[in-house]
Design goal:
GO terms for molecular function: ubiquitin protein ligase activity. It contains 34 helices and 5 strands. By secondary structure, it is mostly helical. Strand 3 and strand 4 form a beta hairpin.
């Protein structure tokens, strides 16, 4: 129902002060995109994920540059700023992830291949969700850029998690070799195939003794970092990797043989090896427990003014370096206080205990006592960043609906209309912001665009089950039917009919809406006067209302039957199946049966539909014919028998039709058979 384009788009509103200024935001986006593009070192790991992410960011960079030229002439719509803010967060985290994959320890990244692949996948999906709310029709973009962004959006939406199975196999071999090397038994002997280990390391770019030494240095740094986050198990396993490649380094330097006999080291049993291997792989820190800046397990989670949670050390370094914005959302921080997130800290401690990982507090207690606890605060999840941004935008736009000029109301209604298209969470947040009563009021606006945007926004909001009840409680039916009857644009009328259909999905609403004296007559009138799309909206709304028995008589009295029969042959309207479905319902009451029987043109039309109609159409056509022939339909049966196509069509339906159609066709054939004797 909703149109993505808006003719004569009005000047966009200024955005909420909670976001960075558009010019600053775009400059930051271009800079961080350029930073990603400047990463020249070819990756040995995550090649596909990294190249795909860099290509996506490169395409977005062209978009940012074009929008930057536009923003110098006029402000951006709030939904555009919301999209760009989310994209900034995604690209900044992608930059950190790519740099870590390229510059960090190759062995450690290999061990975490599934986790890193999942982080790339999560970022792509966040990118797709951000692009969901980008109003391309409101932005003055070149055709090429618009086409590229639309393609990028589709590809990101369809993207699947990709884990390189070769990397996973290489990782598994190296870990098993490390376990074999580190867990010894004086009662048994074992061998580490250093030739294969060397081949595995070579495949990820570790070849010479110098490169092995660099890898050892990076692993040692990683072990030191993990000592306060990942725990002793992770540190122990990193040390196992260091030991393995150190032996390889010595072997390479001394030109040792391909296999080294580790006589003084015990060979673990398969059970012990599998157990150690499993414990090594099991320690995968959940994303919600990682700091968005460092991507490490949070040691001391704190909440900043924007509502996002970070590790204290990471966010303190960010603020101390002169930044006064939230790294994740780009929102300016109104204060620099760091509030302990005790709820999240408790969850992290519980996770550490379940995984037998010593927490940071336990490590610190071994050397000194911790400070006394500060006052607890409510838990704010790090995953609600997008919801906070939508809430801020929705509240801003609702304020404009309430107090703005006509131009501002027009644009605010349009922005809410777009925002309500992008998901159930957004629809709930917009309703919670108090938008529905203001949108209902604007249905009576003399401004055609305000009215159209308001009714379409209500239609989009009504998709959410709870919002249906809120719209009904706001007394919207009077205003919606007024738009249906005398709306300023045809699109407003179409969306009013569609809104009635959406609201009537709830059973109790069928009775309430049907009891309104103007609703059903207005829908029937629109069935005859509307556009093809409008007629379909009216027919589906009438069908929904007619499911409630008491409404069927009102539909018939409003003159729907002749119009519905006429629509069976209206190829332009293209709603044959919808019209048949309504007629089948109306046949269930005495008034409907009598009214339908009066038509002399219906029977041959139904026979044609048995021959050429859709599966659904054939089912409804046979339902109508059977109903017309039963209970006093003596006149209809002879007319059927006189038509040369009726019996062959019914016989074909008994063989090829759906279960319901076969049963009814068989019943109708028995009735016709009796009429022959």
């Amino acid at each position: 129902m909703d149109a993505t384009a808006m003719e004569g788009a009005q000047p966009p509103l200024m955005v909420s002060s909670g976001f960075l200024p558009a010019a600053t935001l775009l400059e930051s986006l271009i800079l961080v995109s350029d930073d990603v593009a400047s990463i020249e070192k070819a990756p040995f790991l995550q090649r596909k994920n990294i190249s795909a992410m860099m290509r996506r960011i490169s395409l977005l960079s062209s978009l940012f540059e074009e929008i930057q030229e536009q923003v110098q002439k006029q402000p951006l719509p709030p939904s555009s700023v919301l999209c760009l803010t989310e994209l900034y967060s995604v690209i900044r985290r992608a930059k950190i992830l790519i740099e870590s994959s390229v510059q960090g320890s190759l062995l450690w990244n290999l061990v975490q291949t599934e986790s890193i692949s999942n982080q790339f996948y999560t970022l792509v999906k966040e990118m797709a969700r951000a692009l969901d709310i980008l109003p391309l029709s409101l932005l003055d973009l070149s055709a090429d850029t618009k086409e590229q962004v639309e393609l990028l959006h589709k590809q990101a939406t369809r993207a699947q998690l990709y884990v390189d199975h070769v990397e996973a196999q290489t990782r598994d071999h190296l870990i098993r070799a490390a376990v074999t090397n580190s867990e010894g038994s004086q009662k048994s002997k074992g061998f580490v195939d250093l030739v294969r280990v060397r081949e595995s390391l070579s495949s990820i770019g570790v070849n010479s003794p110098e490169q092995i030494a660099q890898e050892v240095s990076k692993l040692e740094a990683e072990a030191e970092k993990q000592a306060g986050t990942g725990g002793l198990v992770v540190v122990s396993n990193i040390n196992s990797l260091i030991s393995l490649i150190s032996i390889l380094k010595t072997s390479v330097e001394e030109n040792s043989t391909a296999h080294v006999d580790l006589k003084k080291r015990k060979v673990p049993t398969s059970n012990r090896q599998d157990q150690s291997f499993s414990s090594f792989m099991a320690v995968s820190v959940p994303d919600e427990y990682r700091c968005p800046i460092s991507l490490d397990l949070m040691n001391d989670p704190v909440i900043v003014a924007s509502g996002h949670t970070y590790d204290r050390n990471s966010i303190a370094q960010w603020i101390n370096s002169g930044h006064h914005t939230c790294p994740k959302s780009g929102q300016r921080l109104i204060h620099m206080a760091l509030i302990p997130n005790y709820a999240l800290r408790s969850l992290i401690q519980q996770w550490c205990q379940e995984n037998m990982i010593p927490t940071a507090s336990e490590v610190e207690r071994s050397s000194s006592k911790r400070r006394s606890s500060e006052t607890a605060v409510d838990h704010i999840s790090v995953t609600k960043a997008a919801a906070d941004a939508v809430k801020m935008t929705a509240e801003f736009l609702v304020g404009r609906l309430a107090t703005g000029s006509r131009d501002i109301q027009r644009q605010a209604a349009y922005e809410l209309r777009l925002l309500a298209k992008t998901g159930m969470d957004n629809r709930s947040i917009i309703a919670e912001a108090g938008a529905i009563p203001f949108l209902v009021t604007l249905l009576g606006s003399p401004d055609s665009r305000i009215q159209e945007n308001a009714v379409t926004a209500l239609l989009n909001l009504s998709i959410h089950e709870n919002n249906k009840m809120l719209i009904m409680a706001a007394g919207a039916i009077d205003s919606i039917v007024e738009v249906l009857q005398s709306g300023n644009t045809m699109e407003a009328k179409e969306n009013a009919a569609a809104t009635i259909f959406s609201l009537s999905i709830i059973g109790e609403h069928k009775a309430i809406i049907g009891a309104h004296p103007r609703v059903i007559p207005a829908l029937v009138r629109f069935l005859g006067e509307g556009t093809a799309a409008g007629k379909r909206d009216a027919a589906t709304a009438l069908f929904n209302l007619a499911l409630f028995n008491a409404n069927r008589g009102k539909v018939i009295l409003s003159g729907a039957v002749p119009l519905l029969i006429e629509l069976l042959t209206d190829d332009k309207a293209g709603i044959t199946d919808d019209a048949l479905a309504v007629l089948s319902l109306l046949l269930g009451c005495a008034q409907g049966l009598e009214e339908i029987r009066r038509s002399r043109d219906l029977v041959p039309l139904l026979i044609d539909l048995l021959r050429f109609g859709s599966s659904r159409g054939k089912e409804n056509a046979i339902t109508l014919l059977l109903g017309l022939c039963k209970d006093g339909g003596e006149e209809v049966a002879p007319r059927l028998l006189m038509n040369p196509y009726s019996i062959p069509s019914l016989q074909r339906l008994t063989a090829d039709g759906s279960l319901k159609a076969r049963r009814k066709a068989d019943a109708l054939l028995r009735i016709l058979n009796r009429c022959c004797f």
